[in-house]
Task: inverse folding
């Protein structure tokens, strides 16, 4: 007997980049066909989203583009962020604060260098029960032996310390890529969660070596790291949840001498996930990983009645690209993950 | 007191890809300005160079393009290669045989899968004192945990076994990228040498993450690996020698969805090397690394009288690209290593 139809609630994507301007207008409506109905939106715009006002204005823009999606907004951790602003943000429904190490990924120039300077902010977040989202890498430093392959593992002690110092603060280690990260998160208390992307369940270092559309931060690592990510999803560990880190960039910025980091998965989140989870025997964990674990960790209400997606085992081709006009009126495109490949699961059109 | 002028013999590049057709005609004459006068030429053409005739015909083409360069030719290890062909090749002055693991790098589809099938060939090579050049990586295999980051380290046991079984066969581990490789080569006997490229003395994994012009095989590894390569050059170990693995590709094949592997260093070999060696305090080892160790290992005669290059500490800009017309008459270009950057050492024009 084989499963050919799956009915599940809409998925929740607890880490997504929806950009701004023309690119935002191009990618945000694609949420509608993806099976995702909750989008936890990253604040690394230019300039970064550092205030409640900015976050709410951004949310209003997104809501217009995808009225049926529930947008959860975040602030960018930076020296301007005060405990007062945290309390204000919480009242306004802002869900979390994202911390970027300086210079590590797209638009992270305003990122943090040390956490201790932010302890007042974290205390306020703990009080109002706001979530701290960590980009878990330390900056590369050849003198110290730090490079993209071990930057996450070397970060983990900071996660451990933050959790020790703020045991009630809900912290999510974002887009984990290593066995070490999986083990560290498992070893910590119930207030520490961990998001895993679609693409890190599929890629290893070989896949981005010479392949710009698979290049992202943190980079995909060793086969045993991918195996650990797959295993923790297969095991159904409740604190590991979907956050795609879908990060669209125009093709010309990827296929270039110096490529920007990011894999674009938004348009087909559930078909990708069903296909990939089935490939390692974890299809039965799809609802838990994509629709339940995150909601529980983020304390969201149960799915509304009728929030249902039907997946059918019918192949769908991933488009070669998604075209759009950029802010200068130039025709551009975004290349999705697995462009031109066939997925074994698709979303049934109602 | 600081060194501002260096006079040394022409360099010997014991690993270079000079391609064929239009690209060959574009890159081979660039040897003239590079400070290199001996070029040990890789046989991975389409089709691969597997016979003495092919190698001699290829050599004649190259010689026409750079009459002052001493071209040393190699054969591609494949099932067609017989002990008789080895003896014939040796008589014709072919210097070595190159072994590629199947599918690991550019035009390696004809590469080997197991060495034992070639033991008769190796025995003949040992008899005629021909050099075996090893691309030292095993093919990636996620099930076995093998990926581009550990493919070289996992290969080293094969080097060890080959040396044990053929202690008199001169073997060069090509383009070493890891501390493990340096240590293994050091631990073996005087018949085992090791080439190091210009770019692996400079790059780590971060440099090719999202940067196609730094992507090559084997990929650059961790900071401690680069440090080990630099240290063995600085130490002046006599069995570590220059082999640039300069591997030109047209820009459009690099800046693409799937990028081909290779870093192009031929036009400025000595200026690159002087600049990079000076950066880690090993400038005094330049003559030994680039002009002596290789000649000694390969048993070449002393440099001819008047084979002299003068390097001066005057900055030179690396060109953004080298234009050429491809075989279809299309204007193309090759982007060199450190394109647009400034080198601190240049070759004095006579």
Result:
């Amino acid at each position: 007997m084989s499963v050919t139809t799956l009915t599940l609630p809409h998925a929740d994507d607890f880490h997504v980049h929806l950009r701004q301007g023309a690119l935002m207008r191009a990618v945000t409506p694609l949420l509608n066909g993806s099976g995702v109905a909750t989008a936890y939106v990253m604040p690394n715009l230019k300039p970064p989203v550092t205030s409640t006002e900015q976050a709410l204005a951004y949310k209003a823009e997104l809501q217009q583009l995808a009225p049926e999606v529930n947008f959860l907004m975040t602030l960018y951790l930076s020296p301007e962020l005060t405990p007062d602003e945290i309390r204000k943000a919480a009242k306004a429904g802002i869900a979390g604060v994202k911390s970027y190490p300086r210079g590590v990924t797209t638009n992270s120039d305003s990122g943090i260098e040390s956490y201790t300077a932010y302890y007042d902010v974290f205390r306020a977040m703990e009080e109002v029960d706001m979530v701290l989202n960590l980009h878990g890498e330390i900056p590369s430093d050849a003198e110290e032996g730090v490079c993209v392959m071990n930057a996450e593992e070397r970060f983990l002690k900071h996660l451990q310390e933050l959790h020790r110092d703020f045991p009630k603060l809900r912290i999510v280690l974002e887009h984990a890529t290593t066995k070490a990260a999986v083990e560290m998160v498992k070893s910590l208390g119930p207030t520490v969660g961990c998001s895993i992307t679609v693409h890190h369940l599929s890629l290893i270092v070989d896949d981005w070596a010479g392949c710009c559309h698979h290049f992202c931060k943190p980079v995909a690592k060793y086969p045993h790291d991918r195996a650990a990510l797959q295993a923790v999803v297969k095991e159904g560990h409740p604190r590991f949840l979907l956050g795609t880190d879908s990060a669209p960039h125009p093709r010309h910025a990827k296929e270039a001498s110096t490529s920007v980091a990011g894999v674009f998965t938004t348009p087909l989140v559930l078909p990708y996930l069903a296909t990939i989870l089935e490939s390692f025997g974890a299809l039965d964990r799809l609802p838990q990983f994509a629709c339940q674990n995150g909601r529980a960790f983020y304390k969201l209400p149960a799915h509304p009645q009728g929030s249902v997606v039907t997946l059918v085992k019918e192949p769908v081709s991933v488009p070669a690209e998604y075209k759009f006009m950029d802010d200068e009126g130039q025709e551009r495109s975004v290349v999705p993950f697995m462009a031109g490949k066939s997925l074994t699961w698709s979303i049934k059109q109602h």
Remarks:
- The radius of gyration of chain B is 19 Å.
